[in-house]
């Protein structure tokens, strides 16, 4: 597996230059490193912020599982979507409500066919709320299919 987490990961992360705002590092409660977040007061409703994970060495015709922690904390904080580079139009994963402030786990299967996925984009869309945040942490790429819960 490849550790793409932000504090000690080995992956190449890029902020999108054509979006409305950047994701920012935020300190973890436990004090061991940081995660990436979009605070609720940044930007205006429907503004977008994109954080892109560049994937360079994925083998063709194989399967991978992208596992990540996320949270949507705060009332009407917005949406978190994940896009794969070779499927530009529709998100492969989307969440728009946090039931509470807890971190949850997201999983996405990446199949490398004739076209290879060379990036994964985490997109935050601002909601109406002015408090809370959208956060992403512990991004790991595992070879093979996603494990069942």
TrEMBL record:
Gene for this chain: Egfl6_1
Domain of life from the UniProt record: Eukaryota
Protein's recorded name: EGFL6 protein
GO cellular component: membrane
Record-annotated MAM domain positions: 2-148
């Amino acid at each position: 597996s490849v550790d793409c987490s932000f504090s000690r990961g080995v992956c190449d992360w890029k902020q999108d230059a054509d979006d409305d705002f950047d994701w920012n590092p935020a300190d973890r409660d436990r004090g061991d490193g940081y995660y990436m977040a979009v605070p609720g007061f940044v930007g205006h409703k429907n503004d977008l912020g994109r954080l892109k994970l560049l994937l360079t060495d994925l083998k063709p015709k194989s399967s991978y599982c992208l596992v990540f922690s996320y949270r949507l904390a705060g009332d009407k904080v917005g949406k978190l979507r994940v896009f794969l580079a070779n499927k530009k139009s529709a998100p492969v994963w989307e969440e728009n409500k946090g039931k509470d402030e807890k971190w949850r786990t997201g999983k996405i299967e990446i199949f490398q066919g004739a076209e290879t996925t060379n990036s994964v984009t985490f997109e935050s869309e601002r909601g109406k709320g002015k408090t809370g945040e959208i956060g992403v942490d512990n991004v790991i790429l595992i070879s093979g299919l996603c494990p069942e819960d």
